[in-house]
């Protein structure tokens, strides 16, 4: 389980990510309503599936390394988004 500090930091990082996606959508001329709805929908689906998968993995031996793996995944996603 993550602490309050970690959840606030994660929320801040996700908000920045959404801000950047909205900026990119605005630059390309996409509809603000469609962009907002799709970002919100996919964020909720991603978080929900992560919670479900995390709950199953937590009971396994792999759960010990979940914070490390999550950090590596976030770094990989950040590097990917900077390149693409």
Describe the 3D structure:
With 84 residues, the chain is mainly alpha-helical. The protein has one domain (4-83). Helix content is 83%, strand content 0%. It has helices at residues 4-28, 32-58, 66-83. Helix 1 packs antiparallel against helix 2 (32-58). The N and C termini lie far apart (32 Å). The model has no long low-confidence stretch (mean pLDDT 81).
The biggest sheet amounts to: none
Class by alpha and beta content: mainly alpha
Gross geometry? elongated
Strand content: under 5%
- Oligomeric description of these chains: single chain
Which bin fits the share of residues in helices? Answer: over 70%
- Spatial gap, N to C terminus: 32 Å
SSE order: HHH
Protein name: Manganese efflux pump
Organism: Neobacillus rhizophilus
Transmembrane segments: 7-27, 33-53, 65-83
InterPro entries: Mntp/YtaF (IPR003810)
Keywords for this entry:
mainly alpha; 84 residues; single chain
Quick overview:
This protein is mainly α and about 80 residues long.
How do the strands and helices of this protein lay out in sequence?
Blueprint: H1 4-28, H2 32-58, H3 66-83
Helix pairs in contact: 1-2
């Amino acid at each position: 389980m993550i602490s309050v500090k970690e959840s606030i930091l994660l929320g801040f990082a996700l908000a920045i990510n959404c801000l950047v996606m909205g900026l990119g959508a605005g630059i390309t001329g996409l509809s603000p309503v469609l962009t907002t709805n799709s970002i919100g929908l996919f964020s909720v689906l991603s978080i929900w599936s992560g919670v479900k998968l995390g709950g199953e993995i937590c009971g396994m031996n792999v759960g010990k390394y979940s914070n490390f793996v999550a950090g590596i995944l976030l770094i990989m996603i950040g590097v990917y988004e900077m390149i693409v």
